[in-house]
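Subject: for your reference before the review

Hello V.,

The reviewers asked for a structural picture of the protein, and I figured it would be easier to keep everything in one thread rather than splitting it across files. Below is the amino acid sequence we used in the manuscript, unchanged from the supplementary table.
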Amino acid sequence: MVQLTKDEICAFVNRARTSRTNHTLTLCQVDLSLSLKIKQTIPLTLNDYHVVITEEYIRHVKNGHKHDVDHICRIPEIIAHFDTVSKTIEPNRRTGRTEIFVVFEKKYPDGTVKLVKLRDMREKILSLKTLFRKE
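And here is what came back from the structure prediction:
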């Protein structure tokens, strides 16, 4: 999986915390081996999808899950080394349209479990929706 460094991602996240813009950063691309690993669990072909974060959803994590915002820098690691992956279909609160999400779960040695919820967008893009600690 081709990806940015953790420091590059963290710099973007830190700027986004107080930004009033909605810039996007591409974190990584899902390669064939990761896509095949995901496909063993859920019926989605995600090969060559780009994983992106937007400033808007970084602020969402900051506002709703403030202790988890620093883990946004670890999204490529969480995706590449997930423990479980699932697909959910949920209505968008604003539009009512159905959206597909891919949820990656990663358990860390201290027992903390992080969930990264990515929205399946058009044009082979998985976009951060939220990230939080599983209780």
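For the response letter, the relevant points are probably these. The longest strand covers residues 98-107. The chain has one domain: 6-133.

Happy to draft the paragraph if you're swamped.

O.
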